[in-house]
Amino acid sequence: MEEEEELECPNSSSEKRYFPESLDSSEGNEEGILACEDLELNPFDGLPYSSRYYKLLKEREDLPIWKEKYSFMENLLQSQIVIVSGDAKCGKSSQVPQWCAEYCLSIHYQHGGVVCTQVHKQTVVQLALRVADEMDVNIGHEVGYMIPFENCCTSETILRYCTDDMLQREMMSSPFLGSYGVIILDDIHERSIATDVLLGLLKDVLLARPELKLIINSSPHLISKLSSYYGNVPLIEVKNKYPVEVVYLSGAQKESFESILRLIFEIHHSGEKGDIVVFLACEQDIEKAYEIICQEGSNLNPDLGELVVVPLYPKEKCALFKPNDETEKRCQVYQRRVVLTASSGESLIWSNTVKFVIDVGVERRKVYNPRIRANSLVTQPISRSQAEIRKQILGSSSPGKLFCLYSEEFASEDMRPLKPAEMQEANLTSMVLFMKRIDIAGLGHCDFMNRPAPESLMQALEDLDYLAALDNDGNLSEFGIIMSEFPLDPQLAKSILASCEFDCVDEMLTVAAMVTAPNCFSHLPRGAEEAALSCWKTFLHPQGDHFTLINIYKAYQDMALNSTSEHCVEKWCHDYFLNCSALRMADVIRAELLEIIKRIELPYTEPAFGSKENTLNIRKALLSGYFMQIARDVDGSGNYLMLTHKQVAQLHPLSCYSVTKKMPEWVLFHKFSISDNNYIRIASEISPELFMQLAPQYYFSNLPPSESKDILQQVMDHLSPISTMKKEQKMCDKCPETTEQRCTIQ
């Protein structure tokens, strides 16, 4: 708490803890303070409330949900499950957790504290900061947050915000979540895999713990489905209507870019105040729109004020409501921001400056195809619930305008009512590994709100079997238990385990951190491509992109160790067109992965990057996890045919092989999506001999017939039968005998 803030006395009301206006405005009036016999103390930390607390309390009381506080608290006392239905700006995400904290305080935390899940990590951090401010406590102490690779909580934290996947992972060590008396699942309408899994698993947890309370926050669109899923439970409905003018432009979808530009400049010339948010279909559209608007905006009349274009890429969704000092200064100078995004819009809810929204009505979604083990990028209409959330961004006291670049008929006929559940469109291998791990604790039978496709489940089980994560009975093997300890894709976790055998753990941890963190290459401004490529060439490694990532990380680490200030590191990243925040995140991820390695006592050798033996060992470790992601150049011109299906792809233009024009025949790759470009991303050369030595024989047998398989068969015929039979036995012998005892949930 800040000492310089004025302490103010409460009136006699226990509900409204602020002064009458005459007292509240008397800053610096020592006589008024001394006249107060009793300062009201914050029950959460025992210190007197600051003046800011009373100011924020007034704002909280103006939120639509505040009227429902009594009704909510009454239902919380009498029921185990409560559903709260309200629009995005009603205040449910910030106020309901505080009321639950008050409930836990009233019963002296005998059943634990409060945890509130969110889908997006940026929202987690922002909510925790806001709520700590409103409760007049310290962030990281009474109120904290947990997001992947960052924990800002202590053992004394009363209210925790966290991403849904973090609470899911917590169930591996504490299946019944005994640290919490109230669990709040927020953002249910986002239908993420982790949220759907939690919804199902918590049904069993609630039966085992009758004292546990579950609060479900959702948009109104999902209420009927939730009610049928959980039965007859109390429902708190928050009414929240803001004036929004909706304009449908039926012919604008075919020429969306021209319509968007025309609308932006018409709004700007009108002189009406307020920022503009433009919802586009994908990241490529953001880049294209950014270039055009910047180019056209430079010719505008300066008297109108210059447009500040803010592109929000998927990993930078918090940019609007978490500006740095430079952005804030620019926003004071310039008149209007134009925010370009392809996200759902949840990350923009916190902004009160948006008065105009332009929505193209379509999005590019990743839909996983289990038959070919690849994502397809599909452009399709958004759902009506998503369209409504985008409309709610305009919610404020003054009216806003929503420009829909589609017709009302399109909205009613082509848009689905609800956003599809991620569980029905994504790779389920990680989820199945988690469910197998939870089955050890007796919670493996999950009642999902939407059942995943049987084909996707079978593919996930098959992949885990190939990765040696399952035993002959279909339960988790020793390898599988250790793999589940890592918060990574199972293939990447398997590569790390294999690196323990091949003495390249240090290098594989770096690779794992770099591919898990956001892209380390910066988004390039127009005309900077040649300069950036010239800088990036200094990091290229002839052995492949995975090795290039190690070079970049090592260069960043050397700069960080030898620099006198953080500014020097940021300048170095800027000069080399590298994303400094992504490299910082990679550093954090790597440190946590190393901690896991030490905790479960896996062997760790000193780095030997650069030696011939080490290069071969890194390839072996990568192949041990990614043998299902192999492609062959079928014509010598860079047209790569996947080993598992007949899709043809090219190496990404930033691949070291594309830059040097030296295309290897066989590559192992990290990412591939079926889209307009069909690019293979993060690829490194491998040999067919190495593949046949490390890939499971039964996986090779199940490959579809192809010329590539015939070549591999010829290679296998020349290999020693003994080497192929013993390759997995060697890895098991390398692991400590007590590993299974250490990893099993007690």
Distance between the termini: 40 Å
- Tally of extended strands? 21
Largest sheet: 8 strands, mixed
Output the radius of gyration.
28 Å
Strand line-up in the sheet with most strands: 4-3-5-2-6-7-1-8
- Provide the CATH topology of the largest domain: Rossmann fold
Strand percentage: 15-25%
Number of helices: 30
Assigned CATH class of the largest domain: Alpha Beta
3D architecture notes:
By secondary structure, the chain is of the alpha/beta class. It has 5 domains: 188 residues, P-loop containing nucleotide triphosphate hydrolases (Rossmann fold, 3-Layer(aba) Sandwich), CATH 3.40.50.300; 164 residues, Rossmann fold (3-Layer(aba) Sandwich), CATH 3.40.50; 59 residues, no CATH class; 122 residues, no CATH class; 92 residues, no CATH class. It is 43% helix and 15% strand. The protein has an 8-stranded mixed beta sheet, with helices on both faces.
